[in-house]
Amino acid sequence: MSDHLAGAYDLAIFDLDGVVFLIDKPIPGAAEAVERLRADGTAIAFATNNASRRAADVAALLTGMGVSAAPAEVLTSAGAAAALIAEHVPAGSPVLVVGAEALRAEIRDAGLTPVASAEDKPVAVVQGYGPEVGWKNLSEAALAIRAGATWYATNTDRTLPSPRGPLPGNGSLVAVIRTALDRDPDVVVGKPQPALFTTAATVAGADRPLVIGDRLDTDIQGAVTAGSDSLLVLTGVSGPADLLSAPADRRPSFVAADLSGLFRPADQAEVPAAEVNGWHLARQADRATLSGSGDPVDALRLLCGATWDGVPATNLTAGSEAATDLLRSWGL
């Protein structure tokens, strides 16, 4: 039995944005965490909903940041979407691409013909994030879908994490077409669908994968759907208040401030926690009071035991100065 959390798993599946890097800057400790896992013999995979880069480009980006990665270890929603479409339409079929050049290249490599206009009579529309996507692209997609093309979305993440705060993601662009057509995409490929995770486990021959992510609505929900344990790190989109209010299908097995949590004892990251060092929780019916002081993540683990058992986050109160400051910092 290993003395740290990651040692109990044979594959670590990392999300990228908000976990390993923010836009183009590595998150402190990410490279060290990956290298330590490799040294321990743990297989590594990177699974991203971002469809703006190909697997080889993602691997090169990571390597340039000091995070060792091979193209075969990277699974993208762009590649998964292209493969899925190719399974359902004849070879060479026209597919209208809304997104970055990486998505067009994936469609081309899947034996399909990327097009940009509804006048090309595409059999499918595939929509992924691209920083240059604008009204004209979205309009052509709406026209093609209305004419009968099957609508694939690589993912529906509303936001992308960045050092300046959350930015509009593919889900926000999907919402434009959803509003115009008053309908949802026919197929959503990426997380929280479990395919990226199950594929990673199959490729690695892993029996016990651990998913590491920063978003409850994609990474963690996808892990729950795939039947895998998961670690939420608080370096990206989802924060403490989100975790306290998480529904059952978005609750991680573990939570940590950052990737260093992989190397702490599992019982110091497990969520919820019945008791922790420094903090105390007193519950009265549908209310709970936090007192004491200590590690903020330990307090969060303790509080999840109450909120996941029916105490509204709005009914949490503080019984010490440290608890007052902590709840205030979480917006509670």
UniProtKB/TrEMBL annotation:
Biological classification of the source: Bacteria, Bacillati, Actinomycetota, Actinomycetes, Micromonosporales
Pfam families, A to Z: GNAT_like (PF18407), Hydrolase_6 (PF13344), Hydrolase_like (PF13242)
Source organism, top-level taxon: Bacteria
Domain GCN5-related N-acetyltransferase-like per the UniProt entry, residue ranges: 278-332
Species of origin: Actinoplanes ianthinogenes
Protein's name according to its UniProt entry: Acid sugar phosphatase
